[in-house]
Amino acid sequence: MDYKDLANLIFPDAKEISYYEEKYPRRDLPEGACVLRVAPSPTGNVHIGTIYQALIAKKVAEQTGGVFYLRVEDTDQKREVENGIKQIVDSLEKFELTPHEGMISEEESKGAYGPYKQSQRKEVYQAYAKYMIEQGKAYPCFCTPEELEEIRNKQEAAKIRPGYYGVWAKCRNITVEEAAEKIKKGENYIVRFKSPGREDRKIKHKDVIKGNVEFPENDQDIVIIKADGLPTYHFAHAVDDHLMGTTHVTRGDEWLSSVPLHLQLFQELGFKAPKYAHTATLLKNDNGNKRKISKRKDPEAAASYYLEEGIPALAVKEYLLNIANSSFENWRRANPDKEIKEFDFQLNKMSVSGALFDMVKLLDVSKIVISRMTAEEVYEKASNWASIYSKELSKLLEDKEYALKVFGIERGNKKPRKDIAKWSDVMDNIGYMYDDVFLNNAQEYPYQVINNKEEIKNILSTYIEKYYDENDDKQAWFDKIKELSGELGYAKEVKEFKENPGKWTAHVGDVSTVLRVALTGRTNTPDMYEIMQVLGKESVIARLKKAIEL
Ligand code: GLU
User: Fold this and answer.
1) The pLDDT of residue 387
2) Tell me, what's the pLDDT at 439?
3) Which of 76, 145, 470, 505 could pair covalently with 537 via S-S, beta carbons 3.0-4.6 A apart?
4) Average pLDDT over residues 496-508
């Protein structure tokens, strides 16, 4: 009886690995092309970190003429949720990060290296596990949970490293005959890797992001095939990244410490190891403390949050690129009109530690992204969002022609308006431009410098009677507000006002504010002339009269 017989006893039906090596040939790609994947587990509520990983992987793949694929890592079936894959596929699509290959629904995938869901690849892993047993590089382990617990307790008591290694690895040295006998008797077992490593030796590794790192060698005989016949993450990723031709493994840095084990697995399997690039975890500032963005505590941890809030996918991606490569911000400033695919992203320029994710900054980026859109685009996107999330806004936007005028205020010029950060703000941002909304909710708004009721009434009625003419151009319109200010005893120029303190109680700007508040209920709006043009005469008069009444 030898290793081969034992391997046959354990996996009688597994194919030779040459079958899979031929079935999944090396990819025929141009030199320098990188193949990357995003490999989430379908545990529900896609994390923003998965979007971040996908963005980076897709960017590098496309920049180099390579491939970006989605592999679903569902070997821990206890953690799985229903529709978990669909959620991942949909999120990637919504963020315009659709993979070139990989899963496209719960069961189906596209691409020649599939299936791309690990639970559908059981026989592939078993073939490689069998191969490892044949080589004497893996073995069945019969330890019961109680025995493993006992080992752990002894290690704890002796204050030594926990784990299944060296002298603690009880089943490592049982003979082939003994193992075969136990299996035939029906004893339960799992398959373990026979690590050739030694803890007192070091390995050096050059991570694409973290640079040179040194670790003790791995000496743990980790489980490679579990009792349910499925592989563990470590084993599965090695087999998959090899067969699927991954050139660069980009993943969160919580995996960095597994590198010694992973390199050893690649080595023992006879595979060429991919390059590893471990990305810094997305952190948030929580009352002065930086901590991981957590699904449990932070709504913004969920990719769906951005869609629900109506933060454009492009804004999220631009912000994540900012975090990923700090040079992006300058590039964007210098190239406001370029598409992000033109940005030259560099994996090795990613930050080594803590990537701070700041919602306020993201919303600033979003304002800029939306300010670059045409009125038509804003209309389309806001309406799409509203059709799912806000009946009220949908209704408001029914009159497309008027909505385009509203969104067109201060847009398409050198300094476009930047007041919309997300589609859920739109109702509040433009609601006042609609008489139905504005007049029905009109109230006594707080005016600013000029806040005496009689004075306000006087300004508004004089304006209606003598100065308002909807056909005025901007200059004439503004000259008339100056005239109005002069007539009522306010300074016509701000400069004059400042030079002679005490001479006037207020100036033309304050008079404008009275008009603005009366017309819109706010002290801060886009250009008032444009607003009045869009509102039209009837609405302007109605609003001013309403304000006088109030
Ligand atoms: N399935 C692993 C995770 O959920 C993926 C790690 C990797 O990308 O290799 O984090």
Assistant:
1) 98
2) 92
3) 470
4) 91
Atom of ligand 1 nearest to the CA of 73: 1
Would the CB of 237 count as within 6 Å of ligand 1? yes
DSSP state string for 456-519: HHHHHHHIIIII--TT--HHHHHHHHHHHHHHTTSBSSHHHHHHSTTT-S-BHHHHHHHHHHHH
Question: Phi and psi for 275 in degrees, rounded to 5?
Answer: -80, 145
**Per-residue pLDDT tens over the stretch 64-103:** 999 999 999 999 888 888 999 999 999 999 999 999 999 9
* Best residue for ligand 1 mutational test, from 47, 73, 74, 234 (most atoms within 8 Å of Cβ): 73
Q: What domains, with CATH codes, occur in the chain?
A: 3-14+122-279 (3.40.50.620), 375-425 (no CATH), 439-549 (1.10.10.350)
Q: What is the pLDDT of residue 535?
A: 97
> What strand order describes the sheet that includes 190-193?
138-141, 190-193, 223-225
Kindly give the distance from the C-alpha atom of residue 311 to the centroid of ligand 1, in angstroms, as a whole number.
Answer: 26
Strands (E), 344-400: 355-356
* pLDDT(287) > 80: yes
Cα 542 to Cα 129, 359, 442, distances in angstroms: 80, 40, 11
- Residues whose CB falls within 8 Å of the CB of residue 262, separated by 6 or more in sequence, listed in order: 234, 237, 238, 273, 276
Does residue 39's CB lie within 6 angstroms of at least one atom of ligand 1?
A: yes
Cα–Cα distance, 90 to 68 (Å, whole number): 16
Calculate how far, in angstroms, residue 251's C-alpha sits from the geometric centre of ligand 1.
6
Q: Is 251 in the pocket of ligand 1 (CB under 6 A)?
A: yes
Instruction: Give the atom of ligand 1 at the shortest distance from the alpha carbon of 255.
Output: 6
pTM: 0.92
Read off the pLDDT band of 354 (50, 70, 90). Answer: confident
What letter would DSSP give residue 310? Answer: T
CB contact at 8 A, 244 and 174? no
Instruction: Calculate what percentage of the chain has a pLDDT beyond 90.
Output: 93
Cβ proximity of 224 and 191 under 8 Å = yes
